[in-house]
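In these records, each integer encodes one residue's backbone shape. Here is one protein:

___
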Amino acid sequence: MMEELAKVPWAVIAPLIIVQIILMIVALIDLRKIHSTNGPKILWVFIILFANLFGSIAYFIVGRKQS
């Protein structure tokens, strides 16, 4: 197991993990501040948390109501 982890290219994966976490936090903060969304807010929370990078991106593209 440790040998397999040593072979992982962390220089490529670490920035993606950091971007994913930052995008998730920003999406959750925005979801908390916004008054109305396309769909129930609790559904967007689950999508953002469990769909990882794609959930946050989907929230910003589809979930926010355009005024």
The two ends are 51 Å apart (CA to CA). The chain has four helices and no strands. The helical segments are 2-6, 10-33, 41-50, 52-63.
